[in-house]
Specification:
alpha+beta; Arc Repressor Mutant, subunit A; five-stranded antiparallel beta sheet; two-stranded antiparallel ribbon
Length: 281
């Protein structure tokens, strides 16, 4: 015989858990990190109570608190998100990381994502200098001669990389009137570069696109080990160190690794030093 209380018990939940999940959903829908007062307004709680829920959500990895004291989606929260939402939240987090890098290094930087044929710039943060160089944000960046291009190319599937690389090499051959041997050498140099990018998880440029400009780019990985974003720092060679172990390159690497962790991502394991290759038809 069923007891009178069994029906209500079957429907009874844990109210605090439901409140915490709704708070997480509110921040997720907001699409950016929020202050404690914003969290309180979203949830309809006093700030002190909202803070306690946030502390518990941070402990579970659903939320995290950044260096500015803002509450945003945490590593486990990213794993529960839709891929499109992942990119949006990762972009917001990357811009915050970029601002911190520019403030610490005094150099200009930008965040890029994959466009149609190469990286496309999402956001630029200018160096705090009287005169600074700003990249164009129109169109996709080339794969052959940009550090952001090398970062994305290093992790592209061979069948996607080959036609893009062929098209750029053909344009270079025609534009610079290169011989077949020179074009083949350019390809080999590019493919060797990708090996180095995968090994270091960092790309270095020393004037390949614009003489006198140095640059570093680092990949940001999603939970499938794919490059979802890249952060690039660049500046005049006279003041921008190109040393692999210099403070700027080390700061960029550390920031990229931390951002990957914060969005629940993971760098793919380096199984081979060989670059992606495609079968010839």
């Amino acid at each position: 015989m069923r007891s009178a209380s069994s029906e209500p018990d079957a429907q009874r939940g844990i109210q605090s858990l439901e409140i915490g999940v709704r708070l997480f959903q509110d921040i997720h829908r907001l699409g950016r990190p929020a202050t404690l007062n914003e969290v309180a307004r979203l949830s309809g709680m006093p700030p002190s109570k909202a803070h306690r829920y946030c502390v518990s959500l941070i402990r579970t990895g659903l939320l995290q608190r950044d260096g500015r004291g803002l509450y945003g989606i945490g590593p486990f929260g990213f794993q529960l998100s839709h891929a499109e939402a992942d990119r949006d939240h990762a972009g917001v987090a990357a811009v915050a990381t970029l601002r911190d890098l520019v403030e610490r290094t005094g150099e200009t930087g930008f965040v890029s994502t994959w466009g149609q044929k190469g990286p496309t710039i999402l956001h630029v943060v200018d160096a705090p200098k009287p005169i600074s160089i700003r990249p164009t944000t129109k169109g996709d960046l080339p794969l052959l001669i940009t550090t952001a291009g090398w970062v994305f190319a290093a992790y592209l599937e061979p069948e996607r990389l080959k036609p893009l690389l062929d098209a750029e090499l053909d344009a270079q051959r025609r534009g610079l009137k290169l011989s077949a041997a020179e074009t083949a050498s350019m390809r080999q140099t590019f493919m060797r570069r990708l090996i180095d990018v995968r090994r270091r998880r960092l790309a270095r440029g020393t004037g390949e696109r614009h003489p006198g400009l140095n640059a570093f780019s680092a990949p940001i990985f999603d939970r499938q080990g794919r490059v979802v974003l890249a952060i690039t720092m660049f500046g005049l060679a006279a003041t921008f160190s190109s040393a692999w172990d210099g403070p700027l390159s080390l700061a960029l690497q550390a920031s990229a690794a931390e951002l990957t962790r914060r969005i629940g991502g993971a760098a793919p394991k380096l199984l081979s030093s060989s670059p992606p290759t495609a079968r010839r038809g």
